[in-house]
């Protein structure tokens, strides 16, 4: 961190030295030179170099009155690179500080509400800078930089970064599941890939839902009712804020939700094991010919388990039943499993299970197995297959929820000092992002003017890499080549896109609404919707991604740029 701060202050020093200066102009307008003949030879025009686009003598306005500015292509390229580095440094400080604070304080409100907002702060500051200052006409011209960042961040994360993580983190696929740290098939398009848990799929679905504000704001354009554009913008702004609050609450309670869902999946696996064990003990049919549970056989099972023949099953007798079951690759909490079975069966709350409660409970389990298993036929010769299928499904579901026992919580030494350090990093990152945003937008706008390239395309390609600190961390996760790391990296990508779709969009909509700007971004919004829906659907309904999917994701990036160009400059949407 100290090295970064030294580089930061040195760069500031050299930038202040590199203020605008004047020199002999290089121009194609010969009339500006007062040339005088020597009386011997005819007047000769000087052989001047035509570099109007690379060098220019036009004046420019210095940001904050002292930061350097230029109207030349090369000069603006240099400024964009420098300011982009500053913005990336700010984003990295915010990311690192957030991680330290999260380790100290845990998820809760800090991790669920405060830190996700901070992660989107660099994008928000650039969007604000693109339309907050200057006249309405200036804001209308520069706000396309903000839209370029908004669209570019989403597309870059879901195409270039998503695909690169797949290529870097790929492992061999066996039985449609990636084998951790085994990569022997090189670049097999179907034989290698990554696997994630079910929570990553949930994150992708939430990302898809976050597109609702984009759809709302485009309704007047679809029905050619542009007179209602401001109303649509206001409604979309309100919906974005509501989604931000809802997503923050979800982030706050997500650890609790994960533990509850994992416990439920584990309990279903216990149920499947008990049913299979009971099937082995019984000599009759568990199901009747009409598909209903066979209560006579279940009652005989009860009598077989009731060791003291008192007509009730105690916790000790249920424990003997659970202990006798072999669960492969499952760290079973015996006492917890017995307590859960007792809770399922004991409706009289007397800490014992009578025959009626046992028959009712087992019948309910069998009906659940019949509904859950793939086979729809319930016959005697298929009952054991049905129960085996049920166990396989529950084991697969448990695996999808991930291993909750591999999360090692380390005690941070000198937590108070680390907390001060995290707060300092957050403050410094916020200041750097806020100060850098305005000159970065100006440099992009000046570069666009000098090259005649629309500012949207410049910001679409360049700015996402400057404001996205996720690039480094996700690639580090990918290099571990583990399913858990793959789940973390893709969850981080989907979470970043979700925050962009609600928080960054809310900032952008606020600018457009309160500054009374014109909404003219149909093609840009369409690209965001297409990319999010395609990648969201892919990730929502599958947890294993073969390598060939990366080719599709990579192709979406240039196709997005091409689509915006065609819609704006060929079809004439803009």
From TrEMBL:
MF (Gene Ontology): calcium ion binding; calcium:proton antiporter activity
PROSITE patterns: EF_HAND_1, EF_HAND_2
Membrane topology field: Multi-pass membrane protein
Sorted UniProt keywords: Antiport, Calcium, Calcium transport, Cell membrane, Ion transport, Membrane, Metal-binding, Repeat, Signal, Sodium, Sodium transport, Stress response, Transmembrane, Transmembrane helix, Transport
Major place of residence: membrane
GO cellular component: plasma membrane
Domain (EF-hand): residue spans on this chain: 293-328, 333-368
Signal peptide: 1-23
GO BP: intracellular calcium ion homeostasis; sodium ion transport
Pfam families documented for this protein: EF-hand_7, Na_Ca_ex
TM ranges: 64-88, 100-121, 141-162, 231-250, 422-441, 453-478, 490-513, 525-541, 548-571
Superkingdom of the source species: Eukaryota
Entry keyword Transport: yes
Claim: Transport is one of the keywords in the record: yes
Subcellular location as annotated: Cell membrane
Similarity remark: Belongs to the Ca(2+):cation antiporter (CaCA) (TC 2.A.19) family.
PANTHER family: SODIUM_CALCIUM EXCHANGER NCL-LIKE (PTHR31503:SF45), VACUOLAR CALCIUM ION TRANSPORTER (PTHR31503)
Protein name (database record): Sodium/calcium exchanger ncl
Organism: Quercus suber (Cork oak)
Lineage: Eukaryota, Viridiplantae, Streptophyta, Embryophyta, Tracheophyta
Gene coding for it: NCL_10
């Amino acid at each position: 961190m100290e090295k970064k701060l030294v580089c930061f202050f040195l760069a500031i020093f050299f930038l202040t030295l590199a203020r605008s200066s004047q020199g002999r102009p290089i121009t194609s307008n010969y009339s500006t030179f007062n040339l005088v003949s020597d009386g011997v030879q005819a007047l000769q025009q000087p052989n001047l170099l035509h570099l109007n686009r690379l060098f220019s003598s036009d004046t420019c306005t210095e940001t904050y009155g002292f930061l350097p500015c230029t109207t030349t292509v090369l000069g603006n390229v240099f400024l964009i690179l420098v300011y982009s580095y500053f913005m990336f440094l700010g984003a990295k400080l915010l990311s690192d500080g957030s991680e330290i604070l999260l380790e100290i304080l845990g998820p809760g409100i800090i991790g669920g509400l405060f830190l996700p907002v901070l992660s989107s702060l660099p994008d928000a500051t650039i969007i604000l800078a693109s339309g907050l200052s200057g006249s309405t006409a200036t804001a209308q011209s520069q706000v396309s930089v903000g839209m370029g960042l908004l669209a570019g961040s989403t597309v870059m994360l879901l195409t270039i970064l998503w695909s690169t993580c797949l290529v870097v983190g790929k492992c061999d696929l066996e039985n449609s599941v990636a084998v951790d740290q085994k990569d022997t098939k090189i670049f097999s398009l179907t034989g290698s890939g990554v696997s994630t848990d079910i929570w990553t799929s949930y994150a992708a679905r939430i990302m898809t839902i976050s597109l609702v504000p984009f759809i709302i704001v485009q309704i007047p354009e679809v029905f050619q009712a542009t007179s209602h554009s401001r109303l649509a913008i206001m409604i979309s702004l309100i919906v974005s804020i509501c989604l931000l609050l809802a997503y923050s609450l979800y982030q706050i309670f997500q650890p609790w939700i994960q533990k509850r869902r994992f416990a439920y999946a584990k309990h279903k696996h216990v149920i499947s094991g008990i049913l299979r064990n009971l099937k082995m003990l019984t000599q009759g049919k568990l199901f009747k010919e009409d598909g209903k549970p066979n209560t006579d056989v279940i009652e005989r099972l009860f009598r077989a388990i009731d060791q003291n023949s008192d007509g009730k099953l105690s916790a000790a007798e249920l424990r003997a039943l659970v202990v006798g079951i072999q669960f492969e690759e499952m760290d079973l909490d015996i006492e917890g499993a017995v307590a859960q079975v007792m809770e399922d069966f004991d409706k009289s709350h007397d800490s014992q299970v009578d025959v009626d409660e046992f028959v009712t409970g087992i019948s309910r389990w069998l009906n659940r197995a019949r509904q859950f298993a793939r086979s729809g036929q319930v016959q005697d010769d298929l009952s054991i297959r049905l129960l085996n299928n049920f166990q396989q499904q529950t084991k697969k579901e448990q695996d999808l929820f991930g291993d909750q026992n591999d999360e090692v919580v380390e005690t941070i030494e000198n937590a108070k000092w680390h907390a001060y350090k995290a707060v300092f990093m957050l403050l410094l990152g916020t200041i750097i992002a806020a100060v850098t945003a305005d000159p970065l937008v100006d440099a992009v706008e000046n570069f666009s003017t000098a090259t005649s390239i629309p500012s949207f395309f410049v910001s679409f390609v360049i700015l996402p890499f400057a404001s996205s600190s996720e690039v480094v961390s996700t690639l580090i996760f990918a290099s571990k080549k583990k399913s858990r790391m793959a789940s973390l990296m893709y969850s981080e990508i989907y979470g970043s896109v979700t925050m962009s779709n609600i928080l960054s969009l809310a900032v952008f909509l606020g600018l457009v609404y309160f500054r009374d700007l014109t909404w003219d971004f149909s093609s840009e919004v369409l690209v965001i919707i297409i990319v999010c829906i395609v990648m969201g659907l892919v990730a929502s309904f599958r947890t294993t991604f073969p390598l060939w999917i990366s080719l599709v994701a990579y192709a979406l990036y240039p196709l997005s740029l091409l689509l915006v160009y065609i819609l704006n400059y060929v079809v004439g949407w803009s």
